[in-house]
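Q: Sequence in, structure out?
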Amino acid sequence: MKSRIIRIMVCLMAVMTLCLTACSHDTKPQQPKAQQTAKTVKQPAKKAQPQPMYIYMYRYDNFPVAQAQALCSELEKVYPHVHLVSSALPLPAKEYYKQGNRYRARGLVEDLFPYRHGGVALGMTTQIVYNPNEISPYWGIFGFSLVGHHSAVISSMVPKTHKRQPPEDMRKLMLHELGHAFGLYHCNDPHCFMVDFEHGNKFSQTPSFCNDCKRFLNSKGWKL
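A: Exactly. Output:
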């Protein structure tokens, strides 16, 4: 009888041990169904701000630093992103016409292509530049630009007189050629900077850009 009681007690202790062991497991509570199925809402990606287009100004050879700085200051009044490069570029020998002592304007503009750096390159020279036309294959000009190609060149030397351009004429010439570089063609308004010079000097009759040209350039980042 005594041994039977002991066996019963042993069995009861075993059952209690199993129950305690089962209850001691650390089980994580189930999350509510709504939390399990919730999805993370992605925030819309912010659009990258467009980088400003810089105008890089380059002196060719011995173009005076002070004159380049003065032109840069004038340009900054109407365009906010201008950088005057300190070191001068050499004039490309292959564009030189020895008999006329002048450089091919289109060749200089193409020479500036690698220096645009995603912006616009403006070259400044004291040498006469030329572009072929119906009058002469070596016709001297004030400046040159390929429309919309973001590259232009201007000369401080007047081809006919071999005298230096006055500062105000240089300012207007710079704005005229940069207008072409940004995409403007010649303008029919006789008082606009973008008027066709027609083999002459019309700086005295052009006080500014016309409203249409201003509107176009302002859409390109100018402040006119």
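Strands lie at 55-59, 82-84, 96-97, 102-104, 120-125, 129-130, 140-141, 143-145, 151-155.
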